[in-house]
Amino acid sequence: MPYKRGDAAALAFATGRISAGLAIAGALFEPQARLTMMLRIFTATLGAIAGTVAVQMRGEGLVIAAYEGQGHLLVSLGQHTLVERRRLADLAIPAAYASLQLRTKIGRLPDDGFTQAFRFGVRDPFTRYSLFGQAVQGAEQAPNLVPIVLIGRFLEYETYIGMLQSSQKSWARLEFRGPLIDWPLLAMLVGLHRAQEMPEDSDFALGPGTRFLQSLAREIAGAARAEA
Hints:
Elements: H1 2-14, H2 18-26, H3 37-50, E1 53-58, E2 61-66, E3 72-76, H4 82-98, H5 114-121, H6 125-129, H7 131-141, H8 146-149, H9 151-166, H10 168-172, H11 183-195, H12 208-227
Antiparallel strand pairs: 1-2, 2-3
Helix pairs in contact: 1-2, 2-3, 3-4, 3-11, 4-7, 4-11, 11-12
Keywords: Membrane, Transmembrane, Transmembrane helix
């Protein structure tokens, strides 16, 4: 069910209904729900994008906290196999980065600085050396070079969207065999735009798919700034 609701949020974003997409994405995370680890991080990612959930990296795990007094969840990556930890880290890092400007609103989370947590508090090697981990480090050192680290992910997304479009009947009916949005990549871009106000002509894209993600990330980050 969370994946279906994620698809609904993606369709709302793709058809220009940003507020509706944020409302759907922001309501997915439920701390008490019985979900797999993948689904927990998935719902937290969409919540971080929408601004209703804050994710922080802690040692070998995560702290996921929801607004509006819904509670928080402690997640340990160290309990999983190395293969699973690699996959989970690649999902969790963008969610944490999208929470960059939101962490201070969560009173239950110690605010010791997001970048400090990445530099010193994270012991998991997959978190440090994953593609998204490198992108976070690059954002601190040279923001304009971050898209170079992500260029492979951008290319994968453009190829994937091209495959979806190849079925013209399904594309016209908005019926897809997979997710329309690369949620971790969108979360990473939202985090980049929340971290700093960049001129629109600096947005890196390889085609219509990644141009759409950049535009969407910019609009979502701008909506959060307008509410602040």
